[in-house]
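Reading a protein record of the kind used here takes only a little practice. Think of the row as the fold of the chain written in a discrete alphabet. A record is reproduced here so that you can trace the correspondence yourselves:
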Amino acid sequence: MGEFTNCPIWNTEASVLEEYRGRDGVGVDSPRAGGRYFISGSAASMLRGAEDEIRVKVTHEIVGHNILSSTPEIMTTTINGLADVRGARPQDRANRLLNYLVRETKHLGQSLDRFSEADVRSKDNVTVFGSRAGSRSWPLFAWSDSTHEEEIVFLLEMLAERGAVRLSKQSPIPDVVVLPKGYDLVGSSQGENQFDQTFVAMWFDSSMSDAYEHGIEAAIRECGYRPLRIDQKEHINKIDDEIIAEIRRSRFLVADFTSDKGSPRGGVYFEAGFALALDKPVIWCCRSDLIEYVHFDTRQFNHIVWSEPADLKEKLKNRIGAILGRGPFRQT
């Protein structure tokens, strides 16, 4: 059995991820935080005095990555980037909760129960921020952005009113059976990119770090979507297969063609073309001093021409809002 520790976000039981030993931080698998993640020492210190609101936002980020079999790295920049983002609407939270319930259902008609039963070794871990729910309920909290069992019950009742689940009266969290309507809703929401991932194709050179963190990533998050860069996803598959799979999962693609002069971003052209073939929106970008090097075949598209990260962020936010509107996480 592996080593156990406390989740740096929620102070609940988690298992240690051995592959992160030796780094400044800790890697854990925490049911309460939504799965696997690495958090830097400075980010963990920042969260010790944080409000539940920011813990929920970080947890949502972790759930989203784990859905895609990716282990996120939580840094202080991650937390700062989430600070100005508003939480999801109740209907979006209910949809995510339903998705979890469908994933956990092993056979049709199965009753998912004992969410209130404590199965932890430490008595202290049974009480989580005033909750009477046991550790079996922790993924419900994580997937639904909840901090109290009353929120989970409310969201489950929303799903029951929609005919997605059947509830039996248990306390504090009822037993749940997913009904046929629930499977239909999950199937349709997945087809609509429920988790609102955005694929980012760009030059991964260190000179682009500020443009990504303070321009592209900041704009995408503030518009309510989740950016994914393939170089930041852990995997053991062929890189081309991963790129194709993640573009298919994405709501839209941001393609930035900034590069060394005379060295066009061939991979970015591939990714943009594949997204167009899937009829997904592509937002084209390039730094102002390199726009003349964009290939003739794609120069016809309306590129965001930017000069610095703040300029890129503002222009990209406006373009995303105009083309796609806001995602489930909206800027305050």
Q: What stands out?
A: DSSP finds eleven helices and 13 strands in the chain.
